[in-house]
Amino acid sequence: MLTVTLLSFYCATWLVAVPSAQEASTIILLTGRPVIAMGGFTGGDPAMTVDELQRYVREGRLRYIILGGRMGPGGGANSAVTAWVQKNGTAVSAGEYASTADDSATSGGAGDTGAQLYRFG
């Protein structure tokens, strides 16, 4: 299971989409992989559209999206994106990707920040 999950990270164009560039930067520095900042630098710019996310997911270019965390429950300014992700994604339990609740590898993403990771496909 973990092998399949790790392979999907490397097949997609982006490792994950997150609410802001502030959150994306930590993940990029930890992994060296590209990350989408859906709401600009602070998460307040509704730059990402549902149509774009649907296309990225359909094409296999994006498999994981993080909502919430430092940017609040919706994870940014775009409530339509938040609603689509929650309706169409599968919430991933922290136990599937983190060894402990305070794992330093998740501190910029969905670890103990109150964020939720969703899987697509």
Describe the structure.
This protein has helices spanning 2-11, 21-31, 50-58, 79-88; strands at 16-18, 35-37, 64-67, 90-92, 116-119. It is α+β, with helices and mostly antiparallel strands and 121 residues long. It has one domain. The longest helix is centred in the first third of the chain and has 11 residues, at 21-31. It is globular. The protein starts with a helix and ends with a strand. Mean pLDDT is 80; it is low at 1-9 and 101-109.
Keywords, please?
single chain, 121 residues, alpha+beta, three-stranded antiparallel β-sheet, two-stranded parallel ribbon, 33% helix, globular
Spatially, the strands of the biggest sheet line up as 3-5-4
Output mean pLDDT. 80
> What would you call the shape?
globular
Spatial separation of the terminal alpha carbons:
14 Å
Counted up, domains total 1
**Assembly form of the protein:** single chain
Biggest β-sheet strands, sense, barrel: 3 strands, antiparallel
SS element count, helices? 4
Give the SSE order as H and E letters. Answer: HEHEHEHEE
Number of strands: 5
Helix content: 25-40%
Are there runs of 5+ residues with pLDDT below 50, and where? 1-9, 101-109
Class by alpha and beta content:
alpha+beta
| Cα-based radius of gyration, to the nearest Å | 13 Å
Provide the β-strand percentage band: 5-15%
